[in-house]
Write a structure and sequence with these properties.
This protein is globular. The chain is mainly β. Helix content is 5%, strand content 50%. The chain has one helix and eleven strands; from the N terminus they run βββββββββαββ. The longest helix has 6 residues.
Length: 123
């Protein structure tokens, strides 16, 4: 059974940076596309960024493009989300997700979810 464990969240000020990590176990990491989603209080969960498993194509939500970077280290079974120039509206619980079928399915209905890590950006 695939398990995803996120870390790296915290409380920062606007303009600061954070790097989130997601470690996967129980599966062949290099066969899974990985993504980050977030859910702010009172809002629906939304896609933030995704990375494919082979050629490492990336996709971003418009609200984070240019500020956030998704990457992966297949040797460490870990996906990362580097978040720069953070804004108060980035405050949310950030979830890691994975899927071994397609980037499309990853964005719509991933197979696996992590438990989430809180990111709070103060103004």
């Amino acid at each position: 059974q695939v398990q995803l464990v996120e870390s790296g969240g915290g409380l920062v000020q606007a303009g600061d940076s954070l790097r989130l990590s997601c470690v996967m176990s129980g599966g062949t990491f290099s066969s899974y596309a990985m993504a980050w989603f977030r859910q702010a209080p009172g809002k629906e969960r939304e896609f933030v960024a995704g990375i494919s498993w082979y050629v490492q194509n990336t996709e971003y939500a418009g609200s984070v493009e240019g500020r956030f970077t998704i990457s992966r280290d297949n040797a460490k079974n870990t996906a990362y989300l580097q978040m720069n120039t953070l804004k108060p509206e980035d405050t949310a619980v950030y979830y890691c997700a994975s899927d071994d079928t397609s980037m499309y399915r990853l964005r719509i209905h991933p197979q696996y979810w992590g438990q989430g890590t809180q990111v709070t950006v103060s103004s």
